[in-house]
Amino acid sequence: QVQLVESGGGLVQAGGSRRLSCAASGTIFSINVSGWYRQAPGKQRELVAAFTSGGSTIYADSVKGRFTISRDNAKKTVYLQMNSLKPEDTAVYYCNVLAIWGKGTLVTVSS
Predict the structure, then answer these.
(1) d(C-alpha 39, C-alpha 43), whole Å
(2) Beta partners for 100?
(3) What HEC string does the chain produce?
(4) Of 83, 65, 71, nearest to 33 (Cα)?
(5) 19-69: per-residue pLDDT in tens?
(6) What is the reported pLDDT for 81?
(7) Is 32 buried (19+), middle (13-18) or exposed (0-12) by CB count in 10 A?
(8) What is the dihedral of CA 45, 51, 56, 60, to 10 degrees?
(9) How crowded is the C-beta side of 64, counted as CA atoms within 13 Å?
């Protein structure tokens, strides 16, 4: 059974940085198709950044130039480096690997 555990969330001031991690455990052979999503209070879950099956990366327009997705296949871990954070980035951030969801980690950006 595959499990995903996100970490790295917390309270950060506007303009600050945070790195989220998503560690996969269990029988999983690849994290190549993976991504980060977020859900703000009262809003639908949205894509933040992802690796596609073709090997490219995609980003939401709202985070382009500020967020970077990366992965370490040996550690089965996906990362999201978030820079220049804004209050509107406040949300629960979820990791998704091969259609499996983690439980999320809360990021709160104070103004």
Answers:
(1) 6
(2) 97
(3) CCEEEEECCEEEECCCCEEEEEEEECCCCCCCCEEEEEECCCCCCEEEEEECCCCCEEECCCCCCCEEEEEECCCCEEEEEECCCCHHHCEEEEEEECCEECCCEEEEEEC
(4) 71
(5) 999 999 988 778 888 999 999 999 999 999 999 988 899 999 999 999 999
(6) 98
(7) middle
(8) 20
(9) 6
- What tokens does 65 get? 């130039």
The amino acid present at 47, given as its one-letter code, is L
Tokens 């198709």 locate to 33
The one-letter code for the residue type at 19 is R
